[in-house]
Each structure stands twice: as C-alpha cells, then as structure tokens.
C-alpha cells in the first residue's frame, strides 16, 4: 500500500500515526501531541496490543472523537489481516486444493497459518487464520488449532502456511510442527488430511511427500492391536 507514492510498510510507527491524525485535519502541534500521548500511554505497538481494557478506556477518554476513530482503524486493520479468501466446497485432492492455495496466498507479505475444518464428506465447514508471523520465532499454540477444529466438530483438518520468500520447500520446523499437530489431533480422533507449504508459484503437500507415512503406519498398528 502507498500514501503519496510512499510505501506504508516503510513508514515508522509514529509516521503512520501522523498520517492518521492528519485525516482529522489536526494542526501539526496537535498531531505531535496525540502521537506523544499514545506512546506515553503504551510505549510501543506491542504495549498497546497487550494493554488492559481500563488503560485503553483512560486513553480514549482524553479525546473521545479522535481516539475512538483510531481504535476503529486499528480494529479494521486487524480484520483485514485476519481475512482470507475462502476455498469452499468439497476437497477432492491435494493437487486442485494446492493450486487454489497458491492463488489465495500469493502476495502475502507475512507468514500465515491457515486451518480448514472438514466434515465426514470432506466438505469444508470453516476456514480460520490461526497465526500471522514467523512460525519459528513466534510459535502458535497447537491448542489454538484444536480449539477451532473442535468448535466446528471437524472430522478432519487441512493446514496451510505460506513462505513469503516464495520457496515452497518445507523446513525441519514445518515438518516437526505438522507432525506434532497430527499427533495431538489424533487424541481427539481428528485426522490431518494434509499440510501444505505454499510458495509464490507452487506448493508442497506433506502428504504427497510421505511426511505422515510413519505416523499413519503407527496408527494402523495401534488399531490392529486393539482389534486383537
């Protein structure tokens, strides 16, 4: 995105706030004051993210019209970040689904983990963005995946995450996380049908690559032992 031919991703936090406050036609002095008040209250964007409701209310009450507008803009941005193109219908195979994912995830600037919950007929019943950001440096909780799947009474799930580098080669971390999720989901009798790594123009299906083969064999062995 650009503002006056300037990429918004290159702007510092206080510069983005300044552009926002300009939209209210505030004087330069008032703009600088509002920026100072924001960072005096929250120190950083991370501080705002984890601020208590009372702290945010105290901040807004200082200038309700302008600051409520800022909260609305932040919420709107969060909803845009969580929004995802919906792949609907029945999942018939990894190739067609993988190609759909390449189209849907192309151009994402940050790594995102998407979850598809399916019913017994492999019909998609829900789609969720589980995590935005590096899966290595800021790991999500596996329980977040399971909570969403259980919410929709999913019989199976599909995982997908993109590599902003454009390369669809799975990392050791990708393999480990996918297997850990599959193992945890199995405790709730939820099958992981596949886990996709999506690049700029192609994808890797861990199911096709045989990443789940050992896990599947162990499950089959356990089932056979129970039947004896």
Account of the 3D structure:
The protein has 228 residues and is α+β, with helices and mostly antiparallel strands. The protein folds into two domains: 2-82, no CATH class; 94-227, Cytidine Deaminase, domain 2 (3-Layer(aba) Sandwich). 48% of the residues lie in helices and 17% in strands. It has nine helices and seven strands. The chain has helices at 13-22, 28-42, 45-49, 53-61, 64-82, 94-105, 142-151, 172-186, 213-227; strands at residues 2-3, 6-7, 112-118, 124-132, 156-162, 191-198, 203-205. It has a five-stranded mixed beta sheet. It has a two-stranded antiparallel sheet with strand order 1-2. Strand 3 and strand 4 (124-132) form a beta hairpin. The model has no long low-confidence stretch (mean pLDDT 83).
Count the strands?
Answer: 7
In percent, how helical is the residue content? 40-55%
Distance between the termini: 62 Å
Helix and strand composition category: alpha+beta
Report the average pLDDT across residues: 83
Within the largest sheet, what's the order of strands?
Answer: 4-3-5-6-7
The second-level CATH architecture of the largest domain is 3-Layer(aba) Sandwich
Strand content: 15-25%
**Within the CATH hierarchy, at the fold level, what is the topology of the largest domain?**
Cytidine Deaminase, domain 2
Counting DSSP H or I runs of 4 or more residues, the number of helices is 9
CA radius of gyration: 22 Å
Shape: elongated
List the uncertain runs: none
Name of the level-1 CATH class of the largest domain:
Alpha Beta
How many domains, as an integer? 2
CATH superfamily of the largest domain: Cytidine Deaminase, domain 2
Sheet bearing the most strands, described? 5 strands, mixed
Give helix and strand order, one letter per element, not per position.
EEHHHHHHEEHEHEEH
